[in-house]
Amino acid sequence: MAVAEGCIVKLTREDEHTITQYIRAANGGYTGPVAIWVGRLVELHMPFSRLVVMTAMMKARHESKRAAQ
């Protein structure tokens, strides 16, 4: 578990494996050790994730109001 910007991020072994494989593939089959900087991942991806959630909530609210009419 890692804490970044007040967010608790829990990485599973599968998450770690996926991130590691992505880093290795993106760097020409790199085979050395890989460190996962959770704070940087949050910094890069959290704004978009929040936008996706807010959009989904607005869409659900709109569909709910339309169905009630």
Give the helices and strands, then pairings.
Blueprint: E1 2-4, E2 7-9, H1 13-26, H2 38-68
Antiparallel strand pairs: 1-2
Core attributes:
mainly alpha; 69 residues; 65% helix; 2 strands; 2 helices
Helix content: 55-70%
The biggest beta sheet, please?
2 strands, antiparallel
Secondary-structure content class = mainly alpha
Radius of gyration: 18 Å
Number of extended strands: 2
Proportion of residues in β-strands = 5-15%
Q: Which regions contain 5 or more consecutive residues with pLDDT less than 50?
A: none
Description of the molecule:
The protein has 69 residues and is mostly helical. The chain is built from two helices and two strands; from the N terminus they run ββαα. Strands 1-2 form a two-stranded antiparallel sheet. A hairpin with a 2-residue loop joins strand 1 and strand 2 (7-9). The longest helix is centred in the C-terminal third of the chain and has 31 residues, at 38-68. The radius of gyration is 18 Å and the shape is elongated. The mean pLDDT is 85.
Brief sketch in words of this structure:
It contains 2 helices and 2 strands, in the order ββαα.
